[in-house]
Write a structure and sequence with these properties.
Elements: H1 2-102, H2 104-113
Helix pairs in contact: 1-2
Length: about 140
C-alpha cells in the first residue's frame, strides 16, 4: 500500500506540476499580450500627446492673432474717438463764439468794432503858410498853379 500511495502521490504531484507548467505558460502568454497592449498604448499615448502639443501650438498662435487683431481694432476705435472728440470740441467752441456774437454784449462789441470810421481827409487850413529855406522861398514857385 505504501507503493500505491507513493505512486498516487507521485502521479498527483506530476499532474500538479503539469498544471503549474500549463498555468505558467498561459501566464507568460497573458503577460506577453499585456506587454504588447501596453506598448501599443504607449505608442497611442505618444501620438495623442504629439497631437495635443500640435493643437496647443495652433491654439496659442490663433490666440495671438486674435489678440493682435483686437488690439489693432481697439487702437482704431480709440483714434476715431479722439477725432470725434476734437471735432466735438471744435464745434462747441464755434457755437460758443457764435452764441456770444449773437448775444446783446456781443452785439455791442461788434458795433464798436465795425463802427464806420470818419473819412480821413485833410482840410485846407486857413492860412497857407509857406516855408522857406536859406536859398529858396517855397511861396514862389516856378510851377504854375
Amino acid at each position: 500500500m505504501s507503493e500505491t500511495t507513493n505512486a498516487a502521490i507521485l502521479e498527483r504531484l506530476e499532474k500538479v506540476v503539469t498544471t503549474l507548467q500549463d498555468n505558467s505558460i498561459k501566464m507568460g502568454e497573458l503577460l506577453a499580450v499585456h506587454n504588447e497592449k501596453l506598448d501599443k498604448q504607449d505608442q497611442i499615448d505618444g501620438i495623442l500627446f504629439e497631437k495635443l502639443e500640435s493643437l496647443h501650438k495652433d491654439l496659442n498662435r490663433e490666440t495671438e492673432l486674435i489678440k493682435a487683431g483686437c488690439e489693432r481694432d481697439i487702437r482704431k476705435v480709440d483714434e476715431r474717438l479722439r477725432t470725434m472728440e476734437k471735432k466735438m470740441w471744435s464745434i462747441f467752441g464755434a457755437l460758443s463764439i457764435i452764441s456770444f456774437l449773437v448775444s446783446i454784449p456781443g452785439q455791442s462789441i461788434l458795433r464798436n468794432l465795425t463802427r464806420p470810421e470818419q473819412p480821413a481827409t485833410l482840410s485846407p487850413s486857413q492860412y497857407d503858410t509857406a516855408w522857406t529855406t536859406l536859398r529858396t522861398s517855397t511861396s514862389v514857385s516856378s510851377i504854375p498853379d
